[in-house]
Structure formats: C-alpha cells, structure tokens
Amino acid sequence: MSSLLDPSARGRVILVGAGPGDPGLLTVRAVEALKTADVVVHDGLIDPRVLDLAPPQAQRISVAKQRARHTLPQEAINALIVAHVRTGAIVIRLKGGDPFVFGRGGEEVEAVRAAGLPVEVIPGVSAALGCAAEAMLPLTHRDHSSAVSFVAGQCKGLADQDWAGLAGQGRTLVIYMGVATATDIADKLMADGVAPDMPVAVLERGTLSGARAMKTLLADLGPMVAREAVKSPAIIVVGEVVELSDAQDKLARWARVAEAAAA
C-alpha cells in the first residue's frame, strides 16, 4: 500500500478507520496519520482518546449521525472535506469501524477525486470483526459456517429484498444498523426460509464501556431487543456460530422469569 503520510506534502485527505471503539484496536498506520492532521472530521462515536492522538492545534469537527437525524447531510460532509483540503490542510476523515464497510467512505473518495485532490484510505477493524471477537463469536468455523454475509438493516425496501441464502445452515449473516428494525428483520428472514429457532446474537456497544452480548432464537429477536432495551450501536449475528459465543442466553433467562412469575 502506497503512503501519503509525508508531512511536508500539503492538501490531501486520509480516510481512517477508527475501529469499533476501543482505541487499542487502531492500526499503527492510523495512529501515524492522526499525528499529521490539521483537521479531523470525525464520526460521533469516536473515543476521545483517539481524537487526542491528533496534534493539540488540529481542528476537530464532529459530523455525528444518528438514525433520521444528521448533523450534516453526506453531500455537505463531502463539501466540507474538499473545502479544507483546498486550503492546503491535511484532513483526516475519521470513521468508526472501516471506511468501506457501511461507512459511506466510497462516496467521500469519489467526491475528493472528482475535485482533483489526493486521497488515501487506511482500513480499520470493522464493527463486525471487533464485536464478534470480544464475544468469542467466530463468524466462520470449519464445522459450522463456511460463508458470511454483511447487510444493512436500515435500508429502504427491506420487504422487497431477497435474503434467501444469506442465513441458514453453514452460513452466517451479520446485520449492521438493525436494532430499530429487528422485528421486521426476523420476519423477513423467516419468510425467506430461515428457521425460527436459528440462533441469533445481538452485540451492543462492542469493545466500548457497557458492552453487552446477548443471544436468543430468531423468532425472539424483536421481543428480546425490546425487553432488553437494546440501543445502537449494535450488530446482529444470525447463524449456528452464535452457539459458540460467550453471549448470555437471554431466551432461557426470560423463560425462567416468566415461569417464576406464573408459579
């Protein structure tokens, strides 16, 4: 991978993957890039300790996004990056996880290239990889899963998509941004042929303080998300590999509570 980290060269943008949250999961190259920053344009969930790796005089600009409420629309973020680069600044676009995994990094690269400006991408540990590792949940396993798929749970037209074959025996499905649509996701998967008793894990705030790893069955996904008051950021993992994880069995716990209440 070629490097654009020569501090004497001005006017460029570096898209940096900040990983799933824990600063210890930053790559060496990401740390090197942050130390060259004049401007850091960052997502909302970036740990302050990561931002502190930039020089004290570097300008820090939050473009935090939440469901249905963005600080800036994507087009404005693109324009902001380009405007700062044109002043000769080294702009670090700091993104949670990996810039090219549901991070809209591709759109930002296109915008910078269209402006005729240099850009580099430094990959990061994706949320799926970091959260699964923390929960001891292997996304692939010789005996249980030889394929893994990644999908976005907030995409439009969910009911019109064909998810057949993405989850089931010998396959793992990882769903980003699926907390708000967990019930619809479960219904969609079962309608497309996934068994209601397929194991499912919800990994909330993975690698961050207050992280939780919970498992249940597909038919119970929506109810579990509701009764456990799961909040974003969280990913959903569907597949037999869930049984190998350290995630707490929330279906069994709920069943025991219900049984005790009825006694």
Automatic annotation (TrEMBL):
GO terms for biological process: cobalamin biosynthetic process; methylation; siroheme biosynthetic process. SUPFAM superfamilies: Tetrapyrrole methylase. GO terms for molecular function: uroporphyrin-III C-methyltransferase activity. The keyword Mitochondrion does not apply. It comes from the Bacteria. Residues 12-221 form the Tetrapyrrole methylase domain. Keywords: Cobalamin biosynthesis, Methyltransferase, Porphyrin biosynthesis, S-adenosyl-L-methionine, Transferase. InterPro entries: 4pyrrol_Mease, 4pyrrol_Methylase_sf, 4pyrrole_Mease_sub1, 4pyrrole_Mease_sub2, CobA/CysG_C, Siro_Cobalamin_biosynth, Uropor_MeTrfase_CS. Pfam families: TP_methylase. Pathway: Porphyrin-containing compound metabolism; siroheme biosynthesis; precorrin-2 from uroporphyrinogen III: step 1/1; Cofactor biosynthesis; adenosylcobalamin biosynthesis; precorrin-2 from uroporphyrinogen III: step 1/1. PANTHER family: S-ADENOSYL-L-METHIONINE-DEPENDENT UROPORPHYRINOGEN III METHYLTRANSFERASE, CHLOROPLASTIC (PTHR45790:SF3), SIROHEME SYNTHASE-RELATED (PTHR45790). Belongs to the precorrin methyltransferase family. This is uroporphyrinogen-III C-methyltransferase. It comes from Sphingomonas ginsenosidivorax. The lineage of its organism: Bacteria, Pseudomonadati, Pseudomonadota, Alphaproteobacteria, Sphingomonadales.
